[in-house]
Each structure stands twice: as C-alpha cells, then as structure tokens.
Amino acid sequence: ADAFDEDCDYLFKAVLIGDSGVGKSNLLSRFAKDEFRLDSKPTIGVEFAYRNVKVSEKLIKAQIWDTAGQERFRAITSSYYRGALGALLVYDITRRATFESVKKWLRELRQFGSSDMVVILLGNKLDLGHSREVSQEEGNHLAEEEGLCFMETSALEKLNVEEAFLLMITKIHEITS
Ligand code: GDP
Ligand code: MG
C-alpha cells in the first residue's frame, strides 16, 4: 500500500455493468477524470479507476471496475464481481433492448455478487430525450420492483453522474459502517 492508501478510511470496490454501448466507460471517465469520448473504444477500456470521496468525515477510496468490452460476448467472469459492494447497472434510454437486458444483468449480479450489494439502476443518455425509447416511469417502476435506486444520467452533458456515483458510495458506507 502506498502512503495514500494509509490515509483513507475505507476502500470500496464497485462495478459497472450493462449492455455494450450504453455509456459505462464514459460514465466512469466522467466521474473519475471529468472526460468524455464521442467515439467508443471498448477494447481499450481501463480495468478500473479510482476516486476519493469524503462521506461523513470519512475518506473513501472508490475503486470502480469497468469492463473492457467483454459484455458483448457475455464473458464477464465471476472475478469481476468478487468483493464488489456496489454496482451501477446501466441501460441506454434510446435503446429499448438495453433496458430489456436489465433483468438478465440482475440475475448475473445475484448469481455472482454478494447479496447485500448496493445496486443503482441508471438510464443513461438523458441528453438524447428526442430519441427516447424507455420512459422515466418505466425505469422507476422496474427499479421499485427490483428494490433498486434509480436515476437518469448523461455522461455527455454531466447530468446526475456525480450524484449517481455518490449515491452508491454513500449507500455502501451506510451499510458497511
Ligand atoms: P460502454 O460500451 O457501455 O462502455 O459505452 P461507451 O462509454 O463506450 O459509450 C458508447 C457510445 O455512447 C460512445 O459513442 C459514447 O460517446 C456514447 N455515449 C456515452 N454516454 C453518452 C451520453 O450520456 N450521451 C450521449 N449522447 N452519448 C453517450
Ligand atoms: Mg466500455
């Protein structure tokens, strides 16, 4: 551990999941580095990124794992989920098929992840409201049914990105402290 690790009170692992192209990597780069890419380079995805956040006077180091595009081949392995305390499950509000995959992702989460994992459902690409295929009510309804928190985000326009990650991190902190 480097000097910095010793200064932080908690280290949390969380994962990003959801169909290919929904914006997972851009949500993470927005949160971790405040960057956005118009082109999608799924194979160059980082393994994970860190950001430090302060929650109730505790310094938390959030380690967020991203896929390197394996979700296209349904090849995410159990090690991806191991030790994860939270998950951001992302769909694209302009592609209904990605919303329909949410239940499949939840099954995988429940199979490989820990049962008390904090799961936040995110409908991303809120900036593309004119091509919306999934209403906010549908997102809300599914989240209620499955006992998840729900938000709509835009990695492009920085809408609710910070809020979504912080909600997850705060909830993890509540559960673990
Ligand atoms: P991933 O496969 O889930 O990691 O998705 P990416 O982050 O690679 O994004 C896929 C494509 O969607 C890229 O072309 C991004 O620029 C685009 N994208 C991601 N988030 C948003 C968003 O919030 N709004 C818009 N308009 N495009 C987005
Ligand atoms: Mg990606």
TrEMBL record:
Membrane topology classification: Lipid-anchor
Example of a GO cellular component annotation carried by this entry: endomembrane system
Highest taxon listed in the record's lineage: Eukaryota
Main location: membrane
UniProtKB keywords: GTP-binding, Lipoprotein, Membrane, Nucleotide-binding, Prenylation
Record carries keyword Translocase: no
Compartments, record wording: Endomembrane system
GO molecular function: GTP binding; GTPase activity
Family: Belongs to the small GTPase superfamily. Rab family.
Protein name: Ras-related protein RABA6a
Residues of the full protein shown: 2 to 178 of 218
